Every structure is written in C-alpha cells, then in structure tokens.
Amino acid sequence: MHKLDQAGSMVLPLVIVSVMFIASLGFGIWAFAGRQDYKNNSDAKITAAVGVAEEALIIKKDEEFAESSKSPYKSYQGPVTYGTLTFEYPKTWSAYIDENGSGSLVLQGFVHPNFVPSTDSAATYALRFEVVNTGYDQLLKTYESTVKTGKVKLSAYRAPRTQSELGARIEGEISSKKQGVMVVFRLRDKSIKVWTEGQEYRADFERVLETLTFVP
C-alpha cells in the first residue's frame, strides 16, 4: 500500500509537468502564428503606404511640371479701337481671336490649354473675352434675375493694374449649365467681358486678371 501511494505521488507531478509543457507548446505555437500574421499584415500595410507615397510624389511632380511649363506667359494686346485690352496667359494655352466682329459683338477670343475646341461646340473654355456693343449698366441688368435667384453673386471689382476703373465681378452660373467667374468693365459706350467657364481653371484665371489692363 505504501508503494502504491509512493507511485501515485510520482505520477501526479509528471502529469502536471506534461500539462504545463503542452500548454506552453500551444501558447508558443499561438504566439508564433500571431507574430507571423502581424508581420505579414505589417508588411502589407508598409507596402501599401509606400505605394501611396510614391503615387502622391508622382502626382506632385506632374503638377509641378505642368505649372512650370506654363511659363513664360504669352501676351495678348487688342486693338486700340477697343481699349487696347491686354493680358497674359500660359504659353501652353492656344488662342482663337476674332478682332473683326460686327453687330453687338465687336471682338471675341477663346483661350484654352493645348488647342481651342470648336467655337460652335458646347466646350467649357479656360478663358474667354469679348468687347460688346452693349452699355455697362445695360449689361449688368441682364444678370438681375439670376442674382435674385441666387444663381450668381455680383460684387464690385477693380483689376489690379487698372485700379482707376470700377467694374463688376460675377460668380456662379454665368451661362446655362456653366459655373465660372466673369469680370465686366465699362468701355465708353461698350463693355469688356472676361471670364472662365470651369472651376478647374480658376487659379489660372486669377493670374490672368492680375495682368489685365485696358484704356477706358
């Protein structure tokens, strides 16, 4: 009986040690698997982050190149008869200008990146300008209804290089289905209109306005 008790007392620690060993082994396998999963996920996240950073760098370089390629700017100077309208625009833009107009439209121009789409199309132009045979006050009255409905905002405006002349700035739906910005100036019995038809050209348009001059 004493020998049996002694054998039992030896088996119990052995069982405990075995259980602890198996538990430790299981924990080790679980920890290793977890570490591998974390490593794999971390590698994937790092790879994805590097890819995003590289793509952002490429986009930034493309934007910087596109911006630098616009310089030096081209210059347009209109006829003396129509106020010698002058401004600068990116060299990567092309222009179609008609200075021999008649009737209500005596001068008009279309300016756009790369090439000018057909003037008969519904294209959204980066820059347009006109000298029209319509008085300044009469021209502004045509926007009264759209101002009341909130489709456009109208405010006073002076061109940076022609501070002596008070004009108007119109923002919003400047024409049917076209959102943009237009500035209007009095030119004796006529009016000057300069505008952009797309929000994506807004920054370039503001630079054009910084160089705009005319003789009232």
Q: Can you offer a commentary on this structure?
A:
- There is one protein chain.
- The protein contains four helices and nine strands, in the order αβββββααββββα.
- By secondary structure, it is α+β, with helices and mostly antiparallel strands.
- It folds into two domains: 1-68; 74-211, Protein Transport Mog1p, Chain A (3-Layer(aba) Sandwich), CATH 3.40.1000.
- The strands form two sheets. A seven-stranded antiparallel sheet has the order 3-4-5-9-8-7-6. A two-stranded antiparallel sheet has the order 1-2.
- It is elongated, with a radius of gyration of 36 Å.
- The N and C termini lie far apart (126 Å).
Count all strands and give the number. 9
Q: How many structural domains can be distinguished in the coordinates?
A: 2
Overall 3D form: elongated
Order of secondary-structure elements: HEEEEEHHEEEEH
What fold name stands as the CATH topology of the largest domain? Answer: Protein Transport Mog1p, Chain A
Helix % is 40-55%
The CATH architecture of the largest domain comes to: 3-Layer(aba) Sandwich
Main structural class:
alpha+beta
Oligomer: single chain
How much is the average pLDDT? 86
**CATH domain class name of the largest domain:** Alpha Beta
Low-confidence stretches: none
Strand content of the residues, in percent?
A: 25-35%
Which sequence of strands runs across the widest sheet?
3-4-5-9-8-7-6
Q: Profile the largest sheet.
A: 7 strands, antiparallel
